[in-house]
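tokens incoming
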């Protein structure tokens, strides 16, 4: 610590200083080092006196501190900030004074003594303040312009105050009102002035400073009256020094002047990244949204096929030798199957979407693209696939066949290798080039990307991923031996918030006129319908064979709405409310038992409360409804007519 002692004989300094300050009585009080103080307490001891209420100093009490603020450039106003030591402080305090040009008297580094008798201590948002009692007696205000010099003595000591070096992530309330320094930061947005432009009602302009170490942010507060308000914050990177404060968990910094901004390195937190394996990057995920703070890049090959339209231009799969991953773009991309790309991952987020780990990025994060070589698909069995250990990796499975040969690729279906085990295949998107093709009626090899989206499934890129040339050996569950005689419930969802719908399927082999059909809702065990919906209210009152209608809650999410046909208040139901499908006033299908209140919901397939916080999907082998809910619900997964899905699994709505 460097210390300067200023002695009384240099009277010329005082004469000059007096001429610069407008004060009626500018007599310099006796310098602190020459006085003996009664009842001296450290700044920390003074702060500890505050126990939630305003502290009144009625007896002679003195404390001291080192000035760390300056109002010379107008970024501090009618306050000085002090801390208990020039280096490694433990406490900082704001002294509120109803005067300006305070820096001329209380220079940075000056040790001052405060005579506290007649003053008050308060704490607001973690900020210790000393001043006079306000009119209401419940807080403090600035010490009078005529009085403060009698409360504050200047010592002859001026020290070099060393800011405490911290990362933004390390800053907390204990650093309030102290001088801190943060390295490796930059303005979040380039090309901004400190405090211009501003509206007539704004007195402070906030600018966001971001850490290249942790990606956390610090709010730089600048007065619109500061002398440097029109200057531009340097479009570079470096360190920033200032007086720290907090409000509502947000972190603020106030600089004394532009010398506190030392930005002299190239702008950009993640310049010249080093290559890392995809497995290493995936291992950073903490289970919740995780920002990648290391300056890394990955080199991966795209394994999805945008050209066949079975994936959107905001999604892609890619992998390297160590792992695969799902990519989600906030803009659109034009990546093709086999493209080798380098992605700068520093600052990007890893998130989990319905069981799938994805890297969130924009196309600008791709720093290089060339034509690469597709990885050789890993040969696995269905049992290995179901382990979930191959997420987002390209695989090949032999000796498999579809369980339902009556469906096209856009429908839900499963694969099997022994007619018993099942691996779901993700339904093709409706505009995929092969969506309307019937699935292969043979057996063979499937290639695709494994995904854990709402359970283990396989995604095929194009029709060549299905190489089935051998004889089919199972009995198709949808071989058409039994046709539906009427409409029936094919799907039901009671999800989070208002995500609720009912799906009705026509598998009769003919177009059905809906004029004679209606739905009834029975709330809380009622045996009398409390809500009714006539299906002839639909715009199109005819339901084609193989199609569904979806009745949904008007406040459901956009995915449900996009697949839905009619919003209705009937879809404002809970898991303990029964629903019936009626034709010509005769019940032909039910969900729940009319007149019974099960509590929270009914058990289905041995799953408690399955009609609450779940999605129910009618099995493909079921071809008609029933009035017997307990027969429909079953006692286990085998004899139930329903598959019980997790809450908010809406992946098959509208796709029976």
């Amino acid at each position: 610590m460097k210390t300067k002692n200023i002695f009384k004989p240099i009277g010329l300094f005082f004469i000059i200083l007096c001429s610069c300050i407008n004060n009626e009585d500018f007599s310099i009080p006796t310098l602190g080092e020459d006085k003996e103080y009664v009842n001296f307490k450290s700044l920390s001891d003074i702060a500890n006196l505050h126990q939630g209420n305003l502290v009144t100093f009625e007896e002679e009490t003195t404390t001291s501190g080192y000035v760390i603020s300056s109002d010379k450039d107008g970024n501090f106003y009618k306050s000085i900030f002090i801390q208990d030591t020039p280096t490694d402080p433990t406490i900082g305090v704001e002294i509120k004074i109803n005067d300006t040009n305070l820096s001329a008297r209380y220079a940075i580094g000056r040790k001052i003594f405060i005579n506290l008798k007649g003053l008050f201590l308060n704490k607001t948002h973690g900020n210790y303040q000393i001043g006079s009692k306000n009119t209401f007696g419940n807080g403090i205000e600035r010490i009078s312009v005529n009085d403060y010099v009698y409360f504050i003595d200047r010592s002859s000591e001026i020290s070099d105050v060393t800011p405490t070096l911290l990362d933004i992530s390390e800053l907390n309330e204990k650093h309030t009102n102290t001088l801190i320094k943060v390295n490796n930061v930059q303005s979040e947005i380039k090309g901004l002035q400190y405090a211009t432009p501003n509206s007539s009602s704004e007195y402070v302009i906030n600018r966001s400073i971001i850490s290249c170490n942790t990606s956390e942010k610090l709010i730089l507060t600048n007065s619109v009256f500061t002398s440097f308000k029109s200057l531009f914050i340097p479009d570079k990177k470096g360190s920033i020094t200032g007086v720290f404060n907090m409000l509502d968990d947000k972190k603020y910094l106030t600089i004394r002047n532009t010398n506190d901004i030392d930005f002299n390195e190239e702008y950009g937190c993640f310049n010249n990244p080093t290559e890392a394996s995809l497995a290493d990057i995936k291992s950073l995920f903490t289970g919740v949204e995780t920002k990648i703070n290391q300056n890394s890049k990955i080199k991966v090959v795209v394994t999805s096929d945008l050209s066949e339209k079975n994936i959107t231009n905001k999604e892609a799969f890619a992998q390297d030798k160590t792992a695969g991953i799902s990519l989600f773009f906030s803009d659109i991309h034009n990546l093709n199957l086999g493209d080798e790309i380098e992605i700068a991952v520093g600052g990007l987020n890893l998130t989990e979407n319905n069981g799938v780990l994805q890297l969130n990025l924009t196309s600008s994060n791709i720093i290089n693209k060339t034509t690469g070589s597709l990885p050789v698909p890993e040969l696995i069995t269905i049992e290995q696939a179901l382990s979930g250990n191959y997420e987002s990796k390209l695989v090949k499975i032999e000796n498999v066949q579809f369980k339902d040969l009556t469906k096209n690729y856009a429908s839900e279906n499963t694969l099997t290798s022994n007619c018993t085990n099942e691996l779901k295949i993700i339904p093709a998107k409706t505009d995929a080039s092969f969506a309307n093709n019937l699935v292969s009626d043979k057996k063979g090899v499937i290639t695709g990307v494994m995904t854990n989206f709402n359970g283990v499934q396989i995604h095929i890129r194009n029709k060549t991923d299905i190489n089935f040339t051998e004889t089919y050996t199972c009995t198709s569950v949808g071989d058409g031996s039994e046709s539906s005689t009427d409409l029936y419930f094919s799907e039901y969802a009671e999800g989070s918030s208002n995500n609720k719908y009912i799906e009705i399927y026509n598998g009769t082999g003919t177009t059905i006129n809906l004029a004679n059909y209606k739905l009834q809702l029975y709330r809380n065990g009622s045996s009398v319908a409390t809500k009714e919906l006539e299906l002839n209210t639909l715009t199109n009152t005819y339901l084609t064979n193989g199609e569904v209608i979806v009745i949904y809650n008007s406040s459901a999410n956009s995915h449900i709405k996009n697949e839905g046909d009619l919003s209705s208040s009937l879809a404002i139901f809970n898991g303990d409310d029964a629903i019936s499908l009626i034709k010509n006033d005769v019940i032909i299908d039910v969900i729940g038992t009319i007149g019974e209140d099960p509590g929270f919901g009914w058990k289905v397939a041995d799953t408690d409360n399955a009609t609450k916080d779940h999605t129910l999907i009618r099995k493909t082998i079921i071809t008609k409804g029933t009035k017997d809910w307990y027969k429909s619900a079953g006692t286990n997964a085998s004899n139930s007519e329903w598959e019980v899905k997790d809450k908010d699994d809406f992946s098959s709505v509208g796709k029976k």
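note: The longest helix spans residues 11-20.
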